[in-house]
Design brief:
- This protein is mainly beta.
- It has a single domain, classed as Beta-galactosidase, Chain A, domain 5.
- 3% of the residues lie in helices and 44% in strands.
- The protein is built from two helices and 27 strands.
- The strands form seven sheets. Strands 10-11-12-13-27-23-22-17-20 form a nine-stranded antiparallel sheet, with no helix packed on it.
- The chain is globular and about 55 Å long.
- One of its GO terms (molecular function) is carbohydrate binding.
- InterPro entries: Aldose_1/G6P_1-epimerase, Gal_mutarotase_sf_dom, GH-type_carb-bd, YihR-like.
């Protein structure tokens, strides 16, 4: 028994999907997309199987994405206090599912379905079962999350992924970003507490307007965006490309009216600005307090969200 335990990677059970030139490696802890390659080229910042997942790379964020300010909120007339998981800013960050060990309920060469349950606990007295469906095809890696309230009372809920997109060699300063968002949620500079929704074409916010693709350069971004331009199928798409035109795209449908974008600024040179976090969200930061676009799941009710990552040649 001892040997079998020691041989299991720290990121959990490992799964590999392959199809149409894509290879996806998925770890069971947090249903994390550990790596995604297209003909050997990284599309996201990977992490090692025997590594404690850094910076929420590839994790499923539920039952809330982003932050609950001070970890406090009131739901159904009852004040709740969540554990503070972002000590530097004093917030509850990225939900409760990111360290759950998801179990495989279906697997083929190009598809994997994982499942786990967020059990009722202090601060979140609800039970929500999560199903994460990964599928590779010619259009890239499609991910669909289905959440079902398996408890007896209504539950607040939100979800997002947390991939760091990689356009190619180098760092994000040299890459071109296309972000089709007309609105930005401004935040306090120190604790990133939401302030108000504004237009990206306001003169003092022009640095965040990437509706026309342009180089990221040294712009710092750690903001939520909305007012998304969508195609005829209702999909919004963020594209990150190199000077040569190759890169990666992340698309999502109307289930996610928000997207968090972060330039991954770190003090350590090896991890500083090596990928662009793009997180389609069903609700904005601190939605447990604001109520904006917050899903309220009734018992046995499902909520869904889906997105696709694909290579740009």
């Amino acid at each position: 028994m001892g040997n079998s335990i020691s041989l299991r990677p720290l990121s959990g059970t490992q799964f590999v999907l392959e199809a149409h030139g894509y290879t996806a490696s998925i770890a069971s802890i947090g249903a994390s997309l550990r790596s995604l390659r297209y003909h050997g080229r990284n599309l996201i910042v990977p992490f090692d199987a025997n590594q404690v997942r850094p910076f929420f790379r590839g994790a499923i964020l539920a039952p809330w994405p982003n932050r609950v300010v001070d970890g406090r909120y009131t739901f159904d007339g009852i004040e709740q206090q969540l554990s503070i998981t972002e000590p530097s800013r004093g917030h509850a960050l990225h939900g409760l599912a990111s360290w759950l060990d998801f179990a495989a309920v279906r697997q083929t060469s190009n598809r994997l379905v994982l499942e786990a349950t967020v059990e009722a606990q202090p601060g979140y007295p609800h039970r929500v079962t999560l199903e994460v469906d990964f599928a590779l095809d010619g259009e890239g890696l499609r991910t669909k999350v289905t959440a079902v309230n398996s408890g007896p009372k209504a539950a607040p809920f939100g979800v997002a992924p947390h991939p760091y997109l990689v356009a190619g060699a180098g760092r994000i300063n040299d890459w071109t970003l296309e972000l089709p968002a007309r609105k930005i949620l401004t935040v306090t500079p120190d604790r990133l507490i939401p302030l108000r929704l504004r237009d990206v074409d306001d003169s003092d916010l022009a640095a965040f307007d990437f509706r026309t693709p342009r180089t990221i350069d040294n712009t710092f971004i750690d903001h939520a965006f909305t007012g998304l331009d969508r195609d005829y199928e209702g999909n919004a798409t963020v594209r990150v490309t190199t000077n040569g035109g190759s890169g990666v795209a992340l698309s999502w449908d109307s289930e996610c009216p928000w997207v968090q974008v972060h330039t991954a600024d770190q003090t350590a040179p090896l991890t500083d600005r090596i990928g662009l976090a793009v997180e389609p969200m069903t609700c904005p930061p601190d939605a447990f307090n604001s109520g904006i676009d917050l899903n309220v799941l009734q018992p046995a009710d499902p909520a869904r969200a889906s997105w696709t990552i694909r290579a740009i040649d």
